[in-house]
Amino acid sequence: MSDSLSLSMRLGGLVASQGIRAWMSTMEYRALYYDKSLDARFLGDGPRIYVFWHEYILVPLYLRGHCNLAMLLSRHRDADILARVAYHMGFDCVRGSSNRGSAAALLEMSRRGRHMNLAITPDGPRGPRRQMAVGAIYLASRLGLPIVPLGFGVDRPWRAKSWDRHAVPRPFSQVRGVIGPAVRIPEGLDREQLEVHRQRVERLLNDLTLDAEDWATSGLRREGEVCERPQAQELPPNGTDVSAIDRPALVPYPGDDLAADGDTEQRFSA
Fold first, then answer.
1. Are 138 and 68 spatial neighbours (Cβ–Cβ below 8 Å)?
2. Whole-angstrom Cα distance, residue 33 to residue 173?
3. Are 44 and 37 in contact (CB under 8 A)?
4. Residue 158 main-chain phi, psi, to 5 deg
5. Of 120, 71, 106, 107, nearest to 91 (Cα)?
6. Could you report the per-residue pLDDT of 117-160, keeping only the tens digit for each?
7. What Rg value do the Cα atoms of the chain yield, rounded?
8. Taking a C-beta distance cutoff of 8 angstroms, is the pair 114, 107 a contact?
9. Residue 71 forms beta bridges with which residues?
10. Residues 174, 154 contacting (CB under 8 angstroms)
11. Rounded to whole angstroms, how far apart are CA atoms 132 and 110?
12. pTM, entire model
């Protein structure tokens, strides 16, 4: 019985991944980067931790497969098919959740983070929606890896009646991404200090997401935007300064003076 279930799960994941590719290929994808070198397509100067809200997981699944990314997914049975889909879309998967296997998952993510980029939905697997758990902050502090927040938005998506109000893009709709600066988390933090940084990254991720959603709904073009496609992009030759590749001006946010100068990483690491 278990072998039959495993076979059906493998086949289901393969079929679902092909369906997602076909569905998501109808969308128009555009993004703004604080720093284009932080794109997971580029090797950069070491692994990073990418965070985005659970409701928009389809977007990075489609766009950033085969980019040396390990994704943290729940151990609940309802995430089994998602794990198979992620595998077929080009992601490694680590299974764990806040209730089952969290310590083992953090240990495995720590091991993977020494040579791979990490992808985490910090409000998953059960929410609350758009409220960040501390796990990504702890990993960033322990491993010395920067956190890169990814804000996504879709034009008038269908919304599931789930805890995260999962966004299902309508065919041929506009998908937008606003990729924030690298956030450095100091090492050796206690619980109170981890909480301070958790709140800071949560606010930033929410700001980026709201901005991307407003952009997608508006249908407007923005200075410095780039067209995004899922096809593997040829990496720049060794020695190329990727920090100078397609790097647009910073996008200011209402009530936020963090874009007042170019030293965003230092500002966020304080």
1. no
2. 21
3. yes
4. -70, 145
5. 71
6. 999 999 978 889 999 999 999 999 999 999 999 999 999 999 99
7. 18
8. no
9. 93, 119
10. yes
11. 19
12. 0.82
